[in-house]
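Today's session is about reading a structure prediction critically. Students often jump straight to the picture, but the first step is always the sequence itself: look for stretches that repeat, for charged clusters, for runs of hydrophobic residues. Only then move on to the predicted structure, which in these notes is written as discrete structure tokens rather than atom positions. Here is the chain we will use throughout the hour.
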Amino acid sequence: MIKKPSSHILLLSFVLTFLLTFSFAAGAAEADSPGEKAQFTSFSSTATGITLSWKENDEAVGYKLYEIKDGKGSLVKKTADCSARLTELTPDTEYLFRVRAYTKDTDGNTVNGILSDVLTVRTKLGDIGNLHFIAASDSAIKVGWNKVKNAGYYKVAVASFGQSTYKTVGTTTNDSFTVKELDGKTGYKIRVVAVSDKNTSVYTRIPLHTKPTAVKSVKAADAEYESITVKWDKMPYATQYSVYVCETKDGKYKLKGTTAKTSFKASFDRPGTQYYFKIHAAVQNEYQNTTGSFSDVFSASTKAYPLTINLKSKNIRKGEYLYLNAVHYKNVQWTSSDTKVVFIKGARAYAASTGTATITAKSGNRKTSVKVTVGAPVVNYVSCVYDYTKDQLVFSNKYTSRCRPASITKLITALVALEYMNVNDIITVGNELKLVAFDSTCCGIRKGEKFRFGDLLYGMILPSGGDAAYSIAVSCARKAAKKPNMGDEEAIQYFVSLMNSYMKALGATGTHFVNPDGYPAADHYSTVHDIVLAAKQVLKNPTLKKVTSASSKYVKAITGKSRTWKTTNQLLNRSSRYYSPYANGMKTGTVSNTNTTIVSSATKKGRTIITVTVGCESFNARYTVTHKLYNAYL
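Below is the predicted structure for this chain, in token form.
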């Protein structure tokens, strides 16, 4: 409906009509014009736009819309429709318009109709900008917005979701307002309009919710060994639920996860454990992020695994180790009914003597037992079997007892020398040969000969050359000490100190060396435990691993003479009755014809073990014992 103009507007309209009729009539043919005077029928406005409608003229082919400025009209729209939409206008500003129909004569010339009266339309106040959520409680919602130019105050109205009728709840001159006394059972549409003494804005609205109510009816739907599924009632309008967990009722709860569903599966790593839950709902969308109150605390427990002892065997031999494992349990207390038969330390059991013992596992209020029988050992020598692949001791006898390592010492000599020397370093054999015991095993090198260090390693390891050990030790000492003129005896002493330091760094506790070749001496000793530490380093060193696995090696001295060195380890000799297809390295040692030693490595189906046997009664006995260990543990 068109607003009735005031008297002064009528007078202004009459004057403008006269002027515009005169200005618009110039050059127009009125005789054949559409006969009816144009008439506006409706209008509407926004902050930056105006929509106008006028009465249809049956004789018209189109309409011309003019804007009046400073008493003059300018064409702003030419249209065949009975309406027009103008945009990009200034908020809270008056605009004057006239319209008329036009037609065409027989020559195609435009014939204008009679102008309408002047229509005055004011654009709305500027739009409410950035209407946004600030906070919510159980019964109130606070919103804010950007202030509008020329606005005197703001009117706030609200309607529940599903309703079209808004109820004004208050006015404010501020840029925020709290809508109160909401029941929280539904969502709300909050509408804000800017108002001045002669204008309003177009309303802006936003859909919001009060704070979600506390989650109810939390309970366990399912419990497994490592998970608990909880469920709860659906909360009105909640878009997300957050699940918090703690191991104590009054402790610090941590977020376990979020879900849009009314159930959640929480994963844990402790079977048979009680956990406490609390959950809150939230409304999270493009308009707001509101978190509700927590539910009451609810507790549930993961399903407990049965306590089961997992042993490789219940029948073991004296000297063997059992690595104890309770399936699915970490913190287990292990005990033995007879510590003289089976001694337990941590999660490892050692078969100390023949007989029977009951091993018991206890975790919390759960307990289970298994009976273990210990039989005679595979061998009674000072010996051990070490699983290199699993890094576990499998069998030992007198593991930390002091013994004579003999030529096994040369493995440590090689390891220490490789710390300081390059395989291509040149070693010149010198007077150090005079320090070698007259009855030591030698590889036959001569004073004045020159060898690559990498080649001379074969002479020390394969035929167990004490002469090579002394030449390597002296050359290494001079290089390590940066004293090329160091005397032979001083160099040997320096090198031996490096050997002892090296073993201590590995963790050796029962080793002391006095020479580089292992020639028997009162203060030259080690233990099976310490020999295993060195053997592990041999397997980690590509150069020495290759040297110790060779059955023979052709070597030519830089000075010209060549020779072939063969191993003393018959486990590697294919023509020997003691050959093993699994053996792949290490070293023999001899104290006397009735006191022999061997450290070996062997691999079968991807598993590598290290064996050490000390004090065998003959040369061949050490190989027979090693085969027994291979058969039992490889």
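Discussion point for the tutorial: The longest helix spans residues 7-25.
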